[in-house]
Amino acid sequence: MDEAHRSRRKKITDSCLEEKADPNNLMRFLSQISQRTKSMLLATATPVQLHPVEAFDLLSILALGSDQVLGDPWSEWRKADRAVPMVMGESEIPVDEALAWSWVRNPLPQAEDHRTFRDLRRRLQLQPGDHVVDAGSFNQLRGPDKTKLRRVLPDYGRQHNPFIRHIIRRTRDYLEATIDPETGEPYLKPGKRQANSIYQTALKS
């Protein structure tokens, strides 16, 4: 879906983070089909036009029927008023690893995201398709595991959050200069737009 920023809530207000989104027709349609897709790609050069909640809304569309994006329905990352300030650096993840675990475990990053998550997933005997672990899983972690977890917490809210994992940022220069191995052509044919424009995508797969 190109021009995905056209999928939005009808009103952006000062209290929009606390309000349930009132979707426009396109947002409602994408929300319906997202629940029936295995993969979805939302593309836009301007994922945020008026308020960061717009990026949250796009990820919320992807998250329908896919716990790997924002976790299950009880995830902290599905709450705009908590997730957006965390990503923006306006709030911090708890320094106590037991309290922070509710943010980290739901969804739990994949092994390739960081060696700490690789080790945690190994300790919990998780498969790549396991995206959420229950709260009691913290008790399965040993001392060294908790030490590793503690080390990534200061940067977790900004560097390992679901927004980082599911929003892919590419410059126009990159897309025009990089060859798609399947076609032998650039991902994006050079055009007349400014070379420094930004192309952003959000992906569920």
TrEMBL record:
Gene3D superfamilies in the cross-refs: Tandem AAA-ATPase domain
InterPro entries per record: SNF2-like_sf
Please report the name of this protein according to its UniProt entry.
Helicase ATP-binding domain-containing protein
* Organism from which the protein derives: Endozoicomonas gorgoniicola
